[in-house]
Amino acid sequence: MQLHITGDATADTLLSTDPLALLVGMLLDQQVAMETAFEGPAKIAARIEGPFDAATLAAYDPEALEAVFRETPAVHRYPGSMAGRVQALCAALVDDWGGDASALWTTGEPDGADLLKRLKALPGFGEQKAKIFVALLGKQYGVQPDGWRAAAGAYGDEGSYRSVADIVDAASLTRVRETKRAAKEAAKAATK
Known about the structure:
The N and C termini lie far apart (44 Å). This protein has helices at residues 9-17, 19-28, 34-47, 54-59, 62-70, 79-97, 103-106, 112-120, 127-140, 148-152, 170-191. The radius of gyration is 16 Å and the shape is globular. It is built from eleven helices and no strands. By secondary structure, it is an all-alpha fold.
C-alpha cells in the first residue's frame, strides 16, 4: 500500500514503509498543517546521523536532535518541545516494545480496544490522537483488528473525512480540511 498524505513522494514512501515514521508523523500532527507534520519523519531521517529508528532517536543527543528539528525548513513550529516528545516516544518504544513501533499492533494480536489503550500509553498520545491513529492504521495501513472501528470512534466511520486517516489524494485532503473547519465553526457557535 502507498500512503498519499504529504504530496511529497519520498515522505509518503517512508510513511508507507516504516511504522515508526507513521507514528512520529502522528505525534507531530498538532499546531501545524497535516502535510508538514507527516513530512517531519522524512526530514528527520535525512538529517540525523545514523539510521532512522527508535533506538537511535531515543539515544540521540537532545541538543543535536533539537538542532535537526530547527534546521530550515523546520520539522515543526515548536522544534524544541517536539524534538523532546519524539525522543520520549522513541524511548518508550525501546523500553516497552523492543524499539519496534509495529509491535504496538502485532504483539499479542490486540483487538481495537487494546490497540487504543497501547497508543494512549505512549508519550504525546492522548485519546483523540490515539483514536485517529487507530483509524489511520485501519483505513490505510491494513491493520484492522477486531473492534478497530469502534475503538477509533467517529474517526473510524467510513467516508467521514474527519482526519488524516481519510486522506488519499488532494481532493480528500480538501474534504478533511472542510470538515475540520466546519467543526471549529460549530464549536465556536456553541460557545456563544
